[in-house]
Fold this protein.
Amino acid sequence: QLQLVESGGGLVQPGGSLRLSCAASGFTLDDYVIGWFRQAPGKEREGISCMSGGSGRTNYADSVKGRFTISRDNAKNTVYLQMNSLKPEDTAVYSCAALWSRRCPSLSTPQSYMYWGQGTQVTVSS
């Protein structure tokens, strides 16, 4: 069955880096787009990045452009989110999600995604 499992979260100091992983099983990345989302306590879920499995096209929220990079390893069927220059406001639960589509929907429409991982906590604090 289709499954997404995130890993790589943890506690990091401001300015530090983390790499999140989204391991996919039960499907191949070529058929889906993968989005990364985050949600802080009391805040709405926000889309931060998306990658098309077929074309490799990507997009990013303005809040993370230049700091975060989405990538994939087709051999491992895994999507990554490299997070650099982390700020306290990046603290949130980060989730990956899959949509059977060739194009990324708007980052403002997380409801478009069909499948979700369990989430991994990222805490940025001194």
Observations:
- The chain has a mean pLDDT of 95.
